[in-house]
């Protein structure tokens, strides 16, 4: 996806048009959030198949294999689909990974809470249709939507408590959040979790299909993106703040993961969002 942000509505007519079409398991190069007001989805993700009835929220992280088929329920289907690049919401994207890592589909109350989500989606869509959409306006509306979702999510959202990999991963994220700015090795996190580095990698592969090192690096670079866009700190200062002692090495890692140098990324993002 070339755009930073895209939102569209999926209707009963769209669901009917998809009825006889084959849908294949696939991965995205963007993040996807689905707000379901009416209808249902058949969703295969994390090696499980689930049917979810509206009202619901479903989040699919970039790179995670899944298969999703929207369907009508009681003759109706009404979904908002929001697609965005992680750098657009770099301040909160890792929290979203944490919120949804063990359950991609969440049922929410269908009262005033969900009505507000639908209004926010319509406002974001209306903004995208203007001749010169204000991405900063869309971003603030999206932040409000995510805040409401997090506030209304059931507190007992955890899946089977016997799923030790999921619980370990949750603990890993908490420790990571407190320490990702430090220049520490994977073994530091493994020791905090009273496990071997190998077993930590196995847990991360099982839950996110990534190594522990990749997850740590992603957290660091999401913070770097946030600082590049929302602060006037130098590239060297930002690299040092997230645990890279050498500016050249930080720039090399950043370009390898994003395709841009930090300087070019800052320039392009500020032009897009301002």
Structural features:
274 residues, five-stranded antiparallel beta sheet, three-stranded antiparallel beta sheet, 11 helices, 8 strands, 49% helix, globular
Please tell me about this protein's structure:
The structure is a single chain. A hairpin with a 2-residue loop joins strand 3 and strand 4. By secondary structure, this protein is an alpha+beta fold. The chain contains 11 helices and 8 strands. The strands form 2 sheets. It has a 5-stranded antiparallel sheet. Strands 4-3-6 form a 3-stranded antiparallel sheet.
- DSSP helical segment count: 11
Overall radius of gyration:
19 Å
Shape: globular
**Amino- and carboxy-terminal Cα gap:** 21 Å
Taken as a percent bin, the fraction of beta residues is 15-25%
Portion of residues within helices? 40-55%
Query: Please, what is the average pLDDT?
Result: 89
Q: Please mark out the parts with pLDDT under 50 across 5 or more consecutive residues, or reply none.
A: 157-162
Question: Could you state the order of secondary-structure elements as H and E?
Answer: EHEEEEEEHEHHHHHHHHH
Largest sheet data = 5 strands, antiparallel
Structural class: alpha+beta
Q: Tell me the number of strands.
A: 8
Strand order of the largest sheet: 1-7-2-5-8
């Amino acid at each position: 996806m070339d755009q930073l942000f895209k939102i569209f509505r999926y209707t009963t007519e769209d669901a009917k048009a998809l009825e006889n079409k084959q849908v294949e398991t696939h991965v995205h190069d963007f993040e996807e959030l689905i707000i379901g007001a009416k209808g249902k989805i058949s969703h295969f993700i994390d090696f499980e198949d689930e049917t979810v009835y509206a009202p619901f929220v479903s989040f699919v992280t970039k790179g995670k294999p899944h298969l999703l088929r929207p369907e009508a329920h009681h003759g109706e289907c009404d979904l908002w689909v929001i697609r965005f690049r992680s750098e657009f919401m770099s301040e909160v994207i890792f929290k979203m990974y944490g919120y949804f890592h063990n359950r991609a589909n969440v049922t929410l109350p269908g009262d005033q809470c969900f009505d507000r989500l639908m209004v926010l989606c319509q406002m974001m869509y209306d903004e995208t249709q203007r001749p010169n959409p204000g991405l900063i306006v869309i971003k603030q509306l999206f932040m409000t939507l995510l805040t409401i979702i997090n506030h209304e999510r059931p507190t007992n959202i955890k899946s089977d408590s016997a799923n030790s990999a999921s619980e370990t991963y949750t603990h890993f994220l908490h420790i990571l959040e407190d320490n990702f700015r430090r220049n520490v090795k994977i073994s530091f996190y493994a020791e905090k979790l009273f496990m071997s580095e190998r077993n930590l990698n196995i847990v991360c592969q099982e839950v996110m299909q990534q190594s522990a090192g990749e997850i740590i690096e992603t957290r660091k670079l999401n913070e770097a993106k946030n600082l590049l866009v929302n602060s006037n700190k130098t590239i060297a200062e930002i690299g040092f703040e997230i645990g890279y002692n050498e500016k050249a090495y930080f720039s090399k890692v950043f370009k390898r993961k994003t395709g841009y140098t930090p300087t070019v990324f800052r320039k392009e993002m500020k032009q897009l969002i301002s």
